[in-house]
Amino acid sequence: MSITKKDIIHVADLARLGLNDEETIKYEKELNDVLNFMEKLNELNTDDVEPTSHVLDIHNVFRSDVVEDSLDVEDVLANAPDRDEDYFKVPSIL
Amino acid sequence: MNNKYEVVIGLEVHVELKTATKIFCGCKTTFGGDPNTHVCPICLGLPGVLPVVNEKVVEYGVRTGLAINAKVPNYSKFDRKNYYYPDLTKNFQTSQFDLPICENGYLDIEVDGVVKRIGITRAHMEEDAGKLVHSGKTISSSNSSNVDYNRVGVPLLEIVSEPDIRSSEEAKAYVEALKMILTYIDVSDCKMEEGSIRADANVSIRLIGAKEFGTRTETKNLNSLKALQKAIEYEVERQTEVIEDGGVIEQETRTWDDEQGITLSMRSKADAHDYRYFPEPDLPPIILTDEYIDNIRRLLPELPEARKKRLIEMDSLSVYDANLVIAEKFLADFYDEVRKSIDDPKLIVNYLMGDYYRELVAVGLDFSSSPVSTKDFSELLKLLQEKTISGKIAKEIIPLMVKDGKSPKVIVEEKGLVQISDTGAIEAIIAEVVAANPKAVDDYKNGKGNSIGFLVGQVMKASKGKANPGIVNELLKSVLDK
Ligand SMILES: [Zn+2]
């Protein structure tokens, strides 16, 4: 499996990234390198290995349903690029 | 509708779970609140934070799964569903993809007396998104939106049905049955008006007898049963027209415009569903032991269907009455509690759904907000059974019970409403009434049997409604027939 220029443009579009031609070529090569490395890993025999979805061998990390303090609204909006009263203000989306 | 076609509907119902806090952080889930006041670094998706699963969400997920006859697997995990929209703080929604909390369930619904089984593919846990508020100007003219993130991270359970639903009536019955179960097992308030239960409807049509499904559209965010039904009906009509005109249905997401009563296309994008799910690295998997699952199963309350069956079989209630009683968990519990001391199921239902319900409606209350306790309600029925009061007096007492939550015994004593069954006292009143109404007495003697009704009424009136009507009737007859 290899990644084409079309895939790069598609993925960039999904991630809302605008890439120029130079960058497209660069990422096409880099992502293919990553995939080739995964291919290498695929050579390993994993017949006796349980599939996992998490890197650590832990499970059931839970918290109890107890209310904690939320942030002050001024702190919430401190890093907002733009605000309208106590709302985040964003470009309108249809 | 054109009856060449069969309608195929699948519903995705989003249910807000009634936890105190959000799914991955300790922010409160209370509805409303000033904008952006129920948020913290975790639900804002700030860098370096670590979400931790609320154990109640898992418990409620399992409880729901068991109540909808689903399998609860021992292993479950969260995934990231990636998409860009300003209602998300992280550019992904934490949800479940291939290993949800429950799978393969079903619900039985009833439409026009026919019972039908609707399959449930799965139910998965996920977080709610924020709310876009459009500023004062009209949406089209304003070039910005305001965002309130209070809802971000509120726990949801998305329950996905199989495409087994064949009409808007069945869709409504399915959501109603689901709502009833969810309130019985106490995992959600199911308040549609507050958005705590909302549905997406996948609708397609196909020629009757066709094997393949037609292309479907998905109408999002239907937040009332009426909108759900109307949107489905509109989609069926629209799709029929497109196909009859030789067109093709486009697979797309649509939105319901309640004002115009139509569904509208939401700018279909070819890659709209390219969510690139991958396992959520911040949340370790969930492993549920059989013991944990069985424990929750043991604690499940009696579900609506079982309850209905019991009321019909054990208490000999009619299907109609049983449906009334089970419609609300609060009412069903109220009935059961009263039933412990009153051995007359029909009497309980008659008063619950009759004079008592009418009074509640009249003063703008419902069963759960009424101050009348099961103890006082049972006491009222006991007074009736012992003939201490008549039905007529009960009618007078009920509004007073509803008004200030007083016990019927106290009301009876305070108002001197005890029924008069003392024959001497009643005979004295009868004598007065007979003397004052010679014409009615003559009418009766001349064969106009119905004039006795008038005389009974006069006696009841003279006794201020307190005379025992059975005894009045009996005594009056013997006086007149002398
Ligand atoms: Zn939070």
Structure report:
The complex is a heterodimer of chains A (94) and B (482). In chain A, 38% of the residues lie in helices and 10% in strands. Chain A is an alpha+beta fold and 94 residues long. Chain A has one domain. The longest helix of chain A has 22 residues, at 21-42. The model of chain A has no long low-confidence stretch (mean pLDDT 91). Chain B is α+β, with helices and mostly antiparallel strands and 482 residues long. Chain B folds into 3 domains: 5-292, no CATH class; 302-415, no CATH class; 423-480, Orthogonal Bundle (Arc Repressor Mutant, subunit A). Chain B is built from 15 helices and 16 strands. Chain B has helices at residues 55-67, 168-184, 225-244, 290-298, 304-313, 319-326, 329-339, 345-362, 374-385, 391-404, 408-415, 423-436, 438-445, 451-462, 469-480, and strands spanning 5-16, 53-54, 75-76, 79-82, 92-95, 102-111, 114-127, 131-134, 144-148, 155-161, 197-207, 217-222, 252-257, 262-265, 278-279, 286-287. In chain B, helix 8 crosses helix 10 and helix 14 (451-462) packs across helix 15 (469-480). The A-B interface holds A 10, 13-16, 53-56, 58-71, 73, 76-77, 82, 84-94 and B 19-21, 25-28, 34-41, 44, 52-56, 58, 77, 82, 84-86, 99, 132-135, 139, 142-149, 267, 271, 274, 276, 279, 281, 283-287. The structure holds zinc ion. Zinc ion binds at residues 22, 25, 27, 39-40, 42-43, 153 of chain B.
